[in-house]
Amino acid sequence: MNKIGLASLLLVCLILSSAAPKQVLYQVMSSHPHDVKEFTPYIQTVKQQGRLWLVHLKGNVPPKVMKNFRRTNGQDVKHYSAPVLKAAFAAPLIKDFISRIDVPSIKSDVETLSNYKTRLAGTPDNQKATAQVKGIFAGLGYSISEYCYRDGACSIVADKAGDGSSSDVIMIMGHLDSVGKNFAGADDNASGTAVLMEIARVLKDYGNKKTLRFFATNGEEGGLYGAEHYAKLLTKSGAIKKVVLAINMDMVGYNSNGMVELETDSQYEGLANWFAGLATTYTKLRSKITIGAWGSDHVPFIQAGVPTLLTIEDWSTKTPCYHQECDKPSTVNYEYAGEIAKLNLAAIMTKDAE
Ligand SMILES: [Zn+2]
């Protein structure tokens, strides 16, 4: 190609690139019906894959609406089925502890938590539910701290100390509050809270090296308040650096296809794949991986630099009663919640043994 030809080609490229400016891609950060109603008029195109919802925007989006979106370069977001690998060697000790997961006990805790009229953060019934969760951890002999992000709205932290050989902390969490519908919030998130307590029960007799931390968060539905408050405190004191793994469980009880969704940000994609391998080795679950974390208590910890993962029911077949009064214990698939318990128990024990 001669010089004139090259110059014309460059000119054509320049014209084309200015005529079709690259549109900025955003990830949607909320699926709350109120937010969806608010931002829908500003969406030009939508691509939805599981929990990943990518949009192009149109018009002048007001700042209060912009909070529902996170700018993405397209490379830092992904949604895919994890490759099904041959199961690795299953450690006998882990298999032994996994066999102690008691599905009826998870069911019983979901029913008890759903028996409060509302678990909306800060209401008297939410305080009763918080006290009950606190009592269960205290009964296991764990050391309890309460973190109130405002008057009457507190999260519970229960620590099982390690054997002194490590200062590392492994944390597992689930939010105990609900959106406040009458006698509801069974899947969202009595299920995650019940699994949190079941894992704590099973691990009572385990000789851990690292500190195991059970974190029942509050105010997730209002805006991740409890988790954000605690992540900030840990960051300020420097204690956040000791947390080598954090697991979030939010909505782990509605499912028909045996699929778990593993969600984090791109820097922890390896963690999601590690969990997918554990799922194959220790459970009946298959995994989908979503890169591009949003909408639950794992987010403040990822932002604070902690390797953190959300385990959640397959979002493409999530409960039809999401944030509604029909989110009752009778809709929960307790065997499935039990499989999620096994997965997260295996992750904790594997990490602890490192
Ligand atoms: Zn939730």
Précis, in short:
Helices cover 39% and strands 23% of the residues. The protein is of the alpha/beta class and 354 residues long. Helix 7 (186-203) packs across helix 12 (334-353) and helix 10 (269-282) packs across helix 12.
Q: How helical, in percent, are the residues?
A: 25-40%
**Overall 3D shape:** globular
Give the CATH architecture of the largest domain: 3-Layer(aba) Sandwich
The ligands bound in this entry are: zinc ion
| CATH top-level class of the largest domain | Alpha Beta
The rounded distance between the terminal residues' Cα atoms is: 60 Å
State the strand order across the main sheet: 5-12-11-13-10-8-9-7-6
Poorly predicted regions are 12-21
* Counted beta strands: 13
